[in-house]
Fold:
Amino acid sequence: MKRRGFSLIEVLVALAVVAIALVALLAAAGRMARDADHLRELTLADWVAANVLVETRLRDPFPDLGQSEGRMRMGPHEYRWQRVVQNTPEPALRRIDVHVYAADAKPDDAPIHSLVGFAGRP
Structure:
């Protein structure tokens, strides 16, 4: 009875295919972890911006024009926010822009998230 097994070349080719597939899977898992972390940061920054906008409207339904800044902790992160209140073509309406930055962001860094809202004269 003649036994036939795999040759050394066939085994090496199979190992190479498995190694390439494992490298691709590890790279995909790493990208998914980074994307999930980035999405979590965007979600928290959105909540910071929404909170600033709601607090502004609750404190003063028709806020004064100008710019203000502050800090807020959301989840495990600290964020810095900037609020800009501007006039609109409609005199009874004000535009509120809220920009959220990482706490350690430099002044020329782009915001993580921005949110626009409006407040009107009651």
